[in-house]
Specification:
5 helices, mainly alpha, Glutaredoxin, globular, three-stranded mixed β-sheet
Length: 173
Amino acid sequence: AMEKSYMSMLLLLIAISCALAKDVGKKETKENTTKPKLPQTLSRGWGDQLIWTQTYEEALFRSKHSNKPLMIIHHLDDCPHSQALKKVFAEHKDIQKLAEKFILLNLVYETTDKNLAPDGQYVPRILFIDPSLTVRADITGRYSNRLYAYEPSDISLLYSNMQKALKLLKTEL
């Protein structure tokens, strides 16, 4: 039990550090808008050859009209956990292949839709939405205190959750 509480403490500290980094990041972006930015691909490094949507609204529209599930990745550039997950996600050939069956969106900011933060606004977190525009809160990772968080070591669980999101689609719609 000691080890488990230590682990959840650690995850909590990680979450706090990412949350603090998030506030700092917000201030910087306001100042940065005056400088010309280099064009950044919508993938932000999560899979440069995949097709990514630009906004949550566009992603919902595309999901509904293509009948493909939507995968949303919330992350931050200055969060080491987001960076670590991004690296394994981008290098995982099976995930990259399976991702082609989804409408994809990665966000470095929070949307106003509370459904996208069922248990809080931590990063990285990954949620699936089906084409009826229902957030699949039942597709979760392995951490009870952060249901939609994935660590690099959870990449095979994420892969099977992606398969689950596609399977549910076929049986339910």
